[in-house]
Amino acid sequence: MNTQTGFEGSYLGAADKISAQAIMECKICWTPYDPAEGDDTRQVEPGTPFLALPDDWSCPNCSAPKEQFLVQSDPGSVAAQQAAALAPRIAALEADFREIWHSKMRDVPMVNAALRVEAVGFTLYEGRPLGVLISPWFMNLVMLAAEGEDWSGLKAGEKEVIAFPSGEYEFLHNVREQAGGYKACSLFSPMGDFRSHKDAADVARAVMVALFQEEHRAETDRSADIRAAREAELAAAEAAAEEEGGAPALNPAPTRRAVITGGMASGEEE
Question: Is 220 left (phi over 0), alpha (psi -120 to 50) or beta?
Fold first, then answer.
């Protein structure tokens, strides 16, 4: 159960989500309270957490009450600690693919030079780092091994289906020198539809939200049936085209990736 206070600025008053290191900011005049510095105007000693301030403490600049303070940053929060723990592994993953970009892919015609290698939205899913890796030639959902797991023996190209709240998705295994073993689900390739890196990063963040939304499961669970129906239509169209000497013109079958990418990846194979 969350510890509730009169604090309304962030987390709906859930004091247990604010660490002792949280730097708070008055939402009236934007004056910060840094626990490392305290507050000389009220003789609050350095090292005093925001939640330990007296109930009658107020903003030293505009006298707004504690309830009007927002979290500016919180290096002691669970999210911040998780991000710090993931940072070296994300950096290794990015370094591996930057090396590929500079050594092998830079002059390939299919690449989008407006993009760069970036890992976006990485978080822990069932103990394993999961996020989206953007490059000038692909966008993949990437899963890394959990702490203590050894994925160095993964066989490149081997397939595995992994379940998420929105459905099940096919991942390919691979191993890189710096990042080690990883599993990747293709979202986009090539990347020519993206005008800027910001556009690609926005889609990557949207993917990480949609992936965990259960309301998409009904759509993804129907994908096998939809694919079978489309394949039957395609076979019939091919037979008719052979008789007439023409080529069939059917839209490609939808994929589960099309759900989490907002339909942008609907032309890819699953």
Answer: alpha
Query: Which tokens go with 234?
Result: 């395609």
Specify the residue for token string 């970036």: 118
Over the stretch 113-150, which tens digit does the pLDDT of each residue have?
999 999 999 999 999 999 999 999 999 999 999 999 99
170-188: b or e for each residue (b if 16 or more CB lie within 10 Å)?
A: bbbbbebeebbbbbebbbb
Q: What does the H/E/C string look like for the chain?
A: CCCECCCCCCHHHEHHHCCCCCEEEECCCCCEECCCCCEHHHCECCCCCHHHCCCCCECCCCCCEHHHEEEEECCCCHHHHHHHHHHHHHHHHHHHHHHHHHHHHCCCCCCCCCCCCEEEEEEEECCEEEEEEECCCCEEEEEECCCCCCCCCCCCCCEEEEEECCEEEEEEEEEECCCEEEEEEEEECCCCCCCCHHHHHHHHHHHHHHCCCHHHHHHHHCHHHHHHHHHHHHHHHHHHHHHHCCCCCCCCCCCHHHHHCCCCCCCCCC
Task: Say what the pTM is.
Answer: 0.63
